[in-house]
Design brief:
With 354 residues, this protein is mainly alpha-helical. Helices cover 76% and strands 1% of the residues.
């Protein structure tokens, strides 16, 4: 078992330089094509800042999805968790926020809203991890059922309508731009990405998460508490989803139970495109970040062409996901074949020397 774990770990330990180069080339080509097609719109400061304000929402959700996929699972409840956490936090803000509050009061309420949302997101993650790690429900079914349950709770809280009357200072968080070019949501995304990167690359949690995703049986025999690692992964994913939920509410200046329904598909595409192994064991924040930028460029490019109906978006994203999965499968198969050939060649050379 231990040998198998080591073999899997070696194969999934790092993203090849060629993979990252491929992502950067795709991003550069996508950006160049959109700029050539609509130079007066796409390659302008206003449009670029606008794009930068949008991607942090599903970017942070993609980080949550990546953690679940590295563990060998998936999390279809991230959007439901984001909305539920945000709704509870915003209802608290609307209920207790005083009129004409000072800047200090605004900051304290903003901190309180963040803490409440993160705590609720963590509780949602605990529910999902309990279903997976303790009861033994497969991650897809657990998160699908959990998503319906959490969304149902959001519908009960909102009675199916929007939550309005959000204080103006909170709405500015999702739309404010620093220095004329740096949206606040981008800073929030950068902080979340750095935290996740640190946890994956600099802590024992990251190493154990990848080992468990590569081979859960071998990791258990190696002394790793798979239940605890699963618990930490989904709780962290719930906390990240809560932050994304606050950004969505801030940008829209309202809260609903069904905001961002299309984000689940996009986060899966981003993770797979960014090199995260759907079978578990490997994923890098840098790859996911470049994939986020690629999808934002493509999505913004679609918006410039009104003849491309929104009804075709799901078809396009679904086709992209299938193509990326096929490419990754063939690429991995080719790598394994080359490794096998290299090992066979080395054995032949050793035999001839003897």
């Amino acid at each position: 078992m231990k040998t198998k774990l080591t073999t899997e770990g070696l194969r999934n330990r790092r993203m090849k330089d060629g993979d990252m180069l491929r992502l950067l080339v795709i991003f550069a080509v996508s950006f160049l094509v959109m700029t050539i097609l609509e130079p007066n719109i796409f390659f302008t400061k206003k449009y670029i800042v606008s794009m930068a304000s949008l991607f942090p929402e599903y970017g942070i959700l993609s980080l949550a999805m990546m953690l679940a996929m590295i563990s060998g699972g998936i999390d279809l409840s991230i959007v439901a968790t984001a909305n539920f956490s945000g709704i509870i936090a915003i209802k608290f803000l609307i209920r207790f926020y005083p009129e004409g509050a000072s800047a200090l009061t605004n900051a304290l309420f903003l901190l309180a809203v963040l803490v409440i949302a993160i705590c609720v997101g963590a509780l949602c993650g605990m529910l999902i991890s309990f279903l997976i790690a303790k009861i033994g429900i497969p991650p897809m079914l657990a998160t699908l059922g959990g998503a319906d349950l959490i969304m149902g709770a959001s519908l009960v809280l909102t009675k199916g309508s929007s939550v309005n009357g959000i204080p103006a200072f909170f709405a500015e968080v999702g739309t404010k731009t620093l220095f004329g070019f740096l949206p606040v949501p981008v800073i929030v995304f950068a902080v979340c990405a750095l935290i996740v990167s640190f946890l994956l690359n600099r802590t024992s949690f990251g190493m154990k998460l990848k080992m468990m995703g590569s081979n859960p049986t071998a990791s258990r025999f190696s002394g790793i508490n798979n239940g605890k690692i699963t618990f930490n992964a989904y709780v962290l994913g719930g906390m990240l989803s809560a932050v994304a939920g606050l950004l969505m509410i801030s940008r829209a200046n309202s809260a609903r139970a069904d905001y961002g329904k299309s984000y689940v598909m996009q986060t899966i595409i981003i993770c797979v495109l960014g090199g995260t192994n759907p079978n578990g064991g490997f994923g890098k924040v840098s790859g996911v970040t470049v994939a986020i930028l690629i999808l934002q460029v493509l999505s913004s490019g679609f918006n410039m062409f009104p003849q491309i109906s929104n009804f075709y978006r799901n078809i396009i994203w679904g086709a992209v996901l299938i193509l990326v999965v096929i490419y990754n499968y063939l690429s991995e198969k080719y790598r394994v074949k080359k490794m096998a050939q290299a090992m066979e060649k080395k054995k032949s050379e050793s035999a001839l020397q003897k």
